[in-house]
Specification:
By secondary structure, the chain is an alpha+beta fold. It has two domains: about 60 residues; about 35 residues, no CATH class. A two-stranded antiparallel ribbon has the order 1-2. It has a two-stranded antiparallel ribbon with strand order 3-4. A hairpin with a 6-residue loop joins strand 3 and strand 4.
């Protein structure tokens, strides 16, 4: 899914700057700028909004996909961190919650 998000962003912003890719609150957090950052900014509000629309669509989609095996999953709040897991993978995660 990260690769798909990257490809969707590149299709609209070929020079985008990737800041971070991580799991945050149980969903994909793909953080980027429309193009490399410069002091004072160098993109429009519309470009910034469009970038977020693209990445937010993948974040929404990730909320139903198991982080471990990519099967259908749901948010699990059984550990210190929020994880999206399928029923099978939930039984395989140790108590500390590390994948």
């Amino acid at each position: 899914m990260v690769l798909e998000c990257h490809q969707a962003v590149v299709a609209e912003f070929p020079e985008y700057e990737l800041l971070a890719v991580k799991q945050k609150w149980g969903s994909l957090a793909f953080q980027a700028f429309p193009r490399p950052w410069q002091h004072g900014g160098n993109w429009t509000d519309a470009e910034h909004a469009r970038l977020h629309a693209v990445t937010d669509a993948f974040a929404d989609r990730s909320e139903g996909i198991c982080e471990r095996c990519a099967a259908n999953g749901s948010l699990r709040e059984s550990w210190r961190i929020l994880l999206v897991l399928c029923d099978r993978c939930e039984t395989l995660i140790p108590e500390h919650g590390h994948l």
